[in-house]
Amino acid sequence: MVQLAGVTKQFGRNTALDGVSLTIGPGEVFGYLGPNGAGKTTTIRLLMGMLRPTSGTASVLGLDAWRQSREVHRVVGYVPGEPALYDRLTGRQHVAYCAHLRHRDDANRAAEVAARLDLDLDRPARTLSRGNRQKLAVVLAVMSRPRLLVLDEPTSGIDPLVQQVFHSILREHTADGGSVLFSSHVLGEVERVADRIGVVRGGKLVAVERLQDLAARSLHRVRARFAGDVAAEDFAGLPGVRDLLVEGRTLSCNAPQSALDALLKLVSAREVEDFECSEAPLEETFLSYYGMDQAGGTALSAAGSAAQHAG
Ligand SMILES: Nc1ncnc2c1ncn2[C@@H]1O[C@H](COP(=O)(O)OP(=O)(O)OP(=O)(O)O)[C@@H](O)[C@H]1O
């Protein structure tokens, strides 16, 4: 669906992207993460044929993104970071205009998506809030049922309830074999919907991984109180378990998801009086591995606490 092979993009002396290679397959939601200025929008503009790579190749659905950009625009639903709308046209007029450009009648599908997103299609674009402009851009991108959706920070400005609806729309899209490239500067925005995430920093793709693998490495804080004394050695040697501490009848430790089953079996072999297990937010695990430290103050403190748990 998407293939970047050694793509570099320079603006004068500034290297915005540096040798990025990436493949996105059918039925996949790919979360493209990175702090401000990392190169997300540059990647997306290259894929949409708005920029020409300095070196390397970008292709979309088998089409060369630069040389065949008109065909690319026909088959991709694109939501830019700052949607460009016609101030005086209503949502419905935008829908009619885009449908006309594509020689299709997508009005019913557009009305259905707009209703789900709680967007009034009869208001002129100039009266729409940032979130509602974003929703209209989403309606225009999905109404023709394109095989690929390329979304540049599409949910900034959209409230959490509507984000859930938006996620279901993306899931329906991938269930039909479509794919999604979804950029964001925070994991929280994509973690509920992405299958894989890629992290771009300073123009380099520094990590690509399946979200379920990241979740499997996420730490759980475990605490158990037993009816009698226990020894730390009874629980030692479980792979990935950190900060193991036994004080009298109480055990505490941090364990990745992959160690929970074995740990629980050891715990339940004894008489348990109290048990607690809470998962650290995925954002913490993510930050501790990839340190997206430009994401903001809260993120910084989360990274700090994750690092402490990691011992
Ligand atoms: N047209 C341009 N001319 C010169 N430099 C540019 C241009 N577009 C982007 N850049 C530079 O390329 C780098 C990557 O920018 P890009 O917009 O791709 O980042 P981003 O990850 O999308 O950031 P944000 O989250 O802030 O939108 C930045 O250093 C930016 O200043």
TrEMBL record:
All copies of the ABC transporter domain together span 2-227
Matching PROSITE patterns:
ABC_TRANSPORTER_2 (PS50893)
Official protein name in the record: ABC transporter
- What top-level branch of life does the organism fall under? Bacteria
As for subcellular location, the record says:
Cell membrane
Membrane topology annotation: Peripheral membrane protein
What keywords sit in the KW lines?
Antibiotic resistance, ATP-binding, Nucleotide-binding, Transport
As for family, the record states: Belongs to the ABC transporter superfamily.
What Pfam families has UniProt attached to this entry? ABC_tran
The record's listing under SUPFAM superfamilies reads: P-loop containing nucleoside triphosphate hydrolases (SSF52540)
InterPro entries registered for this protein in UniProt: AAA+_ATPase, ABC_transporter-like_ATP-bd, ABC_transporter_ATP-binding, P-loop_NTPase
Q: Which residues form a coiled coil?
A: none
